[in-house]
């Protein structure tokens, strides 16, 4: 009984204690009636978090585990994969207690790393000698880490990775040398060295920020030291300041050249604005825009606007002049729209712009030698079903010698595609009638010749001429007697203009005056012509065994007859007369000097001839695979002239000869022309102006021209040498390859070129005693001193003045990742030099460059 009571009491106490424990206040939420829940909302058992968030995969040729120390050692071809990171090394150790992974590259017997640790993360590869990574904090420390970014590579003695976006580097270098990046060389040809570099990476771009940084060339330090540098690495364009060059000149003072800003505009445009500033008041502003839309169009726009100030204000040598240049190039892809195309080639400038000595670029590219330049805008419309093409143009032509400009704005041409007038009955066109073709079109032009002072002013508009011209050409041809071709054609011109000419003699001023009359007038003219042409062949064969086997002569003679009436007849009203100072009646056309031209004066009934020749020689040659070599003695040799039956005097025209030939494997080219006046010219004693008589047969030279050119090169005097086959031994100095002969002399392909051109021209009018001569010899060429050293130059010698004309000498050095260029004009009016060193890589091309140049000191104050 006692045991039973005791047992019941014990059970009651246990239940009471347990209920009391459950009734204790817990830190849980209150129930709706204000009483705490007896069961808490969280588990009472806490599971310890794993030290690794993912599986750590390992492999190696030799794996050893130290369970007491919780270490894993991987030797030979070791590899660890963790999340997006993979480490490949010769040796890897894993500390499971400290969550550290340590990797080391392969060592030689002296302990030098000969194969680096390769770490790959998010598709990016890093090379290091040693590498430590904390799998918990995801921070890392690397030694001699090599990181490739964009166009360059960064190598740092020590690199600390704070996270996937921030890397801090100690004693690091950066270079864009492609050979060094691809490990073709152990030293970079240049590098930038900084004590501290921070690499910041995001999903879309990355950049490095440095402290003081110094440039080294071929491991030699240079004076180029910058207090800091920011280099963005991104496939996208980024805006930024363009660093200028600076210096001092006596004529314009201290200067900053190329100070500017670059701004990308959308996906297809970018804008660069450069400025040149001079302390003596001169300045230049040079905006430039480039644009491109793939498969649609591309182009660029540039301008150069500025003011030149020279001398001292208040003195006689003071000069202030404004200059400008506007250039625009636009090209449309032919596939964009075959029925509507637009192109632009604009180059307009002030008259003395290219002689602007603030910048010698235009001296080096020979723009200062320009005598004229043209600008054109063209819009062409084609049709799918209509046989017509409409072309609208606007053109602007400048003559720097005279200062005049020719403006055509706008000009429109409507061309009808050639068509046959009659249909063929059989499907094969035969005879004259079925072969009649028609070509026609309409041209509308607005034209004015003016100067810059009158541009778009009333004086210019008063000179503006408008003209409309229609041309119709009918032509046909047929073959007869098997070997002869007969052609017949007619040409009809119809023209209208808004201005005509009234010419009269003013006895008070004793001059002939030209008066412009504003009225609508026009003319119609026509000419007809017929011709017969054939081809004759001749062959002269030599004896068997002779070196010359044969000479072939191909002759293409033709005769033609042309007729046009006398449109100077008063019944047409195209010509009028005025009395000159002597009272003589002098005819003139009311369309003289006009935009549509003038009708011909006098009847034409001319019989003309032309004889074309082609002469070739065939000779034996051991160098040719066929054993025979053809030499062109004359590619073309022609002789032409005509006789006008309707002419009252001098019926014979001037006879012209022209020829073209090439020798020495078609390299030595010669072009020549000769014009002869068949009538005798008499000169009175002491007079240089002669009288052209009617005596036929006294031929005098009116013009003669010879042009010759010959390109020479190292291949001209021998076959191209295959150095790899000819020489067994090969050596390399940096990226220059050399081949060595048995005596250890180095050889390489030392290519050179030399172009020789000569020109002689003689011209004389039919009534002058003396003519004008032009004679010059020009040379231009280049030579490779080494595979990457190139020297080039050009010069011209005027044999009339016995002086050298424009001469330029230059050399260039391809230094793998940067280039060196030097150009020099040693004498003449523009005696200057230009020296440039610049990095090729786009990321540094605007920042790391050195430019030094001289300038002509014309009009300098002292």
Describe it.
There is one protein chain. The protein is mainly beta. Among the domains are: 57-236, lipopolysaccharide transport protein A fold (Sandwich); 479-653, no CATH class; 659-724 and 751-816. Helices cover 5% and strands 59% of the residues. It is built from seven helices and 53 strands. A hairpin with a 2-residue loop joins β3 (71-82) and β4. This is LPS-assembly protein LptD.
Gap between N and C termini? 138 Å
**Name of the CATH first level of the domain at 57-236:** Mainly Beta
- The count of helical stretches stands at 7
Topology, number of strands: 53
- Second CATH tier, the architecture of the domain at 57-236: Sandwich
The CATH fourth-level homologous superfamily of the domain at 57-236: Lipopolysaccharide (LPS) transport protein A like domain
Please estimate the helix content: under 10%
> What value does the Rg take, in angstroms?
44 Å
**Can you summarize the main beta sheet?**
30 strands, antiparallel
What is the CATH T-level topology of the domain at 57-236? Answer: lipopolysaccharide transport protein A fold
> Which class of secondary structure composition applies to the elements?
mainly beta
Instruction: Report the mean per-residue pLDDT as an integer.
Output: 85
Task: Return residue spans where pLDDT drops below 50 for at least 5 consecutive residues.
Answer: 12-49, 858-862
Shape: elongated
The share of residues in extended strands comes to: over 45%
């Amino acid at each position: 009984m006692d045991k039973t009571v005791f047992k019941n009491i014990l059970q009651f106490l246990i239940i009471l204690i347990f209920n009391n424990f459950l009734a204790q206040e817990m830190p849980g939420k209150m129930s709706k009636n204000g009483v705490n829940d007896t069961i808490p909302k969280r588990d009472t058992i806490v599971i310890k978090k794993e030290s690794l968030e993912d599986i750590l995969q390992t492999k190696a040729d030799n794996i050893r585990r130290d369970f007491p120390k919780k270490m894993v050692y991987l030797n030979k071809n070791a590899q660890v994969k963790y999340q997006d990171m993979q480490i490949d090394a010769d040796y890897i150790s894993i500390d499971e207690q400290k969550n550290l992974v340590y990797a080391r590259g392969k060592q030689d017997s002296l302990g030098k790393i000969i194969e680096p640790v390769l770490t790959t993360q998010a598709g990016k590869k890093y090379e290091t000698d040693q590498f430590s990574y904390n799998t918990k904090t995801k921070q890392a420390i690397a030694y001699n880490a090599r990181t490739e970014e964009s166009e360059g590579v960064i190598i740092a003695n020590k690199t600390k990775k704070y996270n996937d976006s921030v890397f801090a580097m100690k004693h690091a270098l950066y270079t864009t040398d492609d050979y060094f990046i691809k490990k073709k060389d152990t030293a970079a040809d240049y590098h930038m060295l900084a004590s501290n570099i921070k690499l910041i990476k995001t999903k879309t771009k990355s950049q490095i920020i440095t402290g003081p940084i110094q440039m080294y060339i071929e491991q030699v330090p240079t004076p180029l030291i910058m207090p800091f540098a920011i280099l963005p690495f991104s496939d996208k364009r980024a805006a930024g300041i363009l660093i200028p060059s600076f210096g001092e000149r006596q004529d314009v003072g201290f200067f900053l050249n190329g100070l500017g800003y670059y701004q990308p505009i959308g996906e297809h445009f970018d804008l660069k604005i450069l400025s040149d500033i001079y302390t003596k008041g001169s300045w230049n502003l040079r905006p430039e825009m480039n644009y491109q839309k793939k498969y649609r169009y591309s182009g660029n726009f540039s301008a150069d606007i500025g003011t030149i100030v020279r001398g001292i204000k208040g003195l006689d040598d003071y000069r202030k002049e404004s200059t400008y240049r506007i250039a625009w190039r636009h090209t449309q892809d032919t596939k964009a729209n075959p029925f509507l195309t637009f192109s632009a080639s604009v180059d307009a400038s002030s008259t003395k712009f290219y002689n602007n000595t603030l910048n010698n670029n235009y001296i080096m590219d020979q723009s200062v030698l320009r005598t004229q330049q043209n600008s054109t805008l063209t819009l062409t419309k084609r049709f799918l079903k209509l046989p017509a093409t409409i072309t609208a143009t606007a053109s602007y032509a400048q003559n720097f010698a005279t200062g005049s400009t020719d403006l055509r704005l706008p000009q429109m041409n409507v061309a009808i595609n050639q068509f046959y007038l009659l249909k063929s009955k059989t499907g094969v066109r035969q005879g004259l009638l079925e072969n009649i073709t028609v070509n026609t079109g309409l041209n509308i032009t607005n034209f004015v010749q003016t100067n810059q002072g009158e541009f778009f002013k009333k004086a210019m508009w008063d000179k503006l001429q408008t003209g409309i011209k229609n041309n119709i050409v009918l032509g046909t041809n047929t073959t007869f007697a098997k070997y002869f071709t007969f052609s017949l054609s007619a040409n009809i011109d119809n023209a209208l203009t808004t201005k005509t000419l009234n010419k009269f003699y003013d006895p008070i001023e004793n001059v002939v005056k030209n008066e412009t009359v504003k009225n609508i007038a026009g003319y119609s003219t026509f000419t007809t012509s017929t011709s017969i042409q054939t081809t004759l062949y001749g062959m002269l064969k030599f004896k068997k065994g002779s070196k010359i086997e044969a000479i072939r002569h191909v002759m293409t003679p033709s005769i033609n007859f042309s007729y046009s009436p006398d449109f100077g007849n008063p019944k047409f009203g195209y010509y009028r007369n005025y009395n000159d100072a002597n009272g003589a009646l002098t005819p003139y056309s009311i369309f003289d000097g006009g935009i549509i031209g003038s009708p011909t004066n006098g009847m034409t009934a001319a019989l003309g001839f032309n004889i074309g020749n082609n002469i070739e020689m065939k000779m034996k040659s051991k160098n040719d695979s066929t054993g025979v070599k053809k030499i062109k003695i004359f590619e073309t040799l022609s002789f032409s002239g005509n006789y006008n039956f309707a002419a009252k005097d001098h019926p014979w025209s001037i006879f012209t000869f022209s020829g073209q030939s090439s020798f020495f494997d078609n390299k030595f080219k010669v072009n020549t022309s000769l014009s002869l006046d068949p009538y005798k010219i008499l000169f009175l004693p002491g007079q240089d102006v002669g009288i052209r008589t009617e005596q036929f047969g006294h031929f005098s030279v009116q013009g003669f021209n010879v042009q010759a050119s010959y390109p020479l090169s190292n291949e001209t005097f021998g076959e191209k040498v295959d150095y790899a086959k000819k020489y067994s031994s090969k050596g390399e100095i940096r990226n220059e390859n050399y081949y060595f002969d048995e005596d250890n002399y180095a050889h390489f392909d030392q290519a050179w070129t030399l172009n020789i051109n000569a020109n002689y021209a003689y011209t004389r009018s039919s009534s002058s005693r003396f003519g004008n001569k032009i004679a010059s010899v020009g040379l231009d060429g280049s030579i490779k001193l080494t595979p990457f050293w190139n020297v080039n130059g050009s010069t011209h010698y005027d044999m009339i003045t016995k002086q050298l004309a424009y001469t330029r000498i230059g050399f260039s050095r391809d230094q793998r990742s940067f280039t060196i260029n030097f150009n020099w004009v040693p004498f003449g009016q523009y005696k200057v030099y230009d020296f440039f060193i610049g990095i090729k890589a786009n990321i540094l091309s605007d920042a790391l460059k050195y430019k030094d140049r001289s300038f002509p000191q014309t009009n300098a104050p002292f």
